[in-house]
What does this fold into?
Amino acid sequence: MSSTLQIAATDKGCILRIAGRGTMNESLVADEMAMRTLNGASASEVIFDLSACEYLDSTFLGCLVHLRKHFPDRFRVAAPQPVRKKLLGPLRLDLLIPSIDLAPEIRGQWVSVAIPSNDKRELLSHVMHSHEQLAQCGTPMQAIFEKIAAQMAEELKG
It folds into this structure.
């Protein structure tokens, strides 16, 4: 299945909606948009709407952990509990990442976000950072995430 990333404004910030598969390519763009919103105004909030998402790779999950770590009161995911359990539960992130069942109403229209071909070094750096975040939050796969982050760090040195 293909992936789509959309953004819409809310009264307090924005919602990023991922449909289909959330992979490292979508997570890099989504992370940049979320960080711009959260760093832009101290009261802004970002919600990732995962209600139409079928799969999140480890890089995307690391992006969510990063946002939760740095903005615990201003970042949430929105999806029905069974969807959250499916996407976040295997790594126990459903217990870590703040969540709601339904995303708030949007203001205006959804805007599709293009997923560009990413610079290889930028993508490697994002993958490394995301896996470092997963390794630090005590998931059942901590050792594997540490190895992936170390491998990416080595590739970035070369």
Observations:
- The chain has one domain: 4-117.
